[in-house]
Specification:
With 104 residues, the chain is mostly beta strands. It has one domain (2-103): Thrombin, subunit H (Beta Barrel). 9% of the residues lie in helices and 53% in strands. The protein contains 1 helix and 7 strands. The protein has a 6-stranded antiparallel β-barrel. A hairpin with a 4-residue loop joins strand 4 (46-50) and strand 5 (55-66).
Length: 104
């Protein structure tokens, strides 16, 4: 699911210091999410963010720079699986549903 919500991401750096940064939740699914960030986050670090109804946590699996920032792939921990019922981003686009309507 494509989305575009502003979120605050938290993680501990290698020295154990808590870090915070604003990011954009670019897409989300039951297994993970992609975040757009201004700065990189190291691979393997556990990141956290909250929504009104729940908290998400997962490990950074990739961090790639593209023209507009860093795209950070997060694989959710087992207790952080996403569903629409638990959290619905303000700007959510289901491409499969959109394409299904075009075929009709």
């Amino acid at each position: 699911m494509l989305c575009a919500d502003l979120i605050e991401i938290r993680w501990k750096d290698r020295s154990g210091k808590m870090r915070r940064a604003q990011g954009i939740l670019e897409d989300i699914c039951s297994a993970g999410a992609c975040l757009q960030m201004e700065s990189p986050i190291p691979l393997g670090v556990t990141v956290h963010w909250r929504t009104p109804k729940t908290q998400f946590a997962g490990k950074v699996r990739y961090c790639t720079y593209r023209e507009i920032g860093y795209f950070v792939g997060v694989q959710f921990d087992s207790e952080s699986r996403w569903t629409r019922q638990m959290y619905r981003p303000q700007h959510l686009l289901d491409l499969e549903r959109l394409m299904a309507h075009r075929r009709i």
